[in-house]
Every structure is written in structure tokens, then in C-alpha cells.
Amino acid sequence: MERRNHQRRKFGRHALLYHPQGFLCPGSITNISLNGLFIMTSDARIRKGSCVEVAIDASPKNTTPLTAKALVVHKMDDGVGLLCENDVLLHELLTNKQ
To answer: What range defines the domain where residue 73 resides?
Structure first.
């Protein structure tokens, strides 16, 4: 059984994953917690253990995306699980939902 430190919440925002090798992977965030998130993406180039940057659509009011560095900790057919370095960003998204 997998043990989690923080409860996940459903979350529906678009996101882009920036890989250091220079490619972009569009996706949709399906759930989020205080230390990570799951992004649905069909892009097979993202591998477990990769370090990426994620850009999250903040809100219709704010055109500047929110960004965080993250580690790919889960890779599934329909997406990736990310552990984010910037838990302040995730806390902001969870508490304000902008």
C-alpha cells in the first residue's frame, strides 16, 4: 500500500512540462497535493527520474503561468506523477485556487 504525506485533491488546470532536453509536453493536472501533482499527458519522452519544470495556468485573471521544478516520481501510460520543489506554489494553488 502506498503511503502519502498529504491528501490529494481533484484539480483541473492545463500545464506544460519543460524537459531539459528541450521539448515541451502539454498536459492537464488531474490532482494535486502539498508536495506534488499528477499530469495527464500522452508524451512518452518523459521518464521516471527526469527533472522537469512545470508551468501551470494560474487563472483567467492572471496570464503569467506559475512555475516549479519537479522530479518525475511515477510514470504511467496516461501521465506522470511529479514531486515538486516549490511547495509554496502548491499551497497557493490549493488554498486560493486562484
So the answer is: 9-96
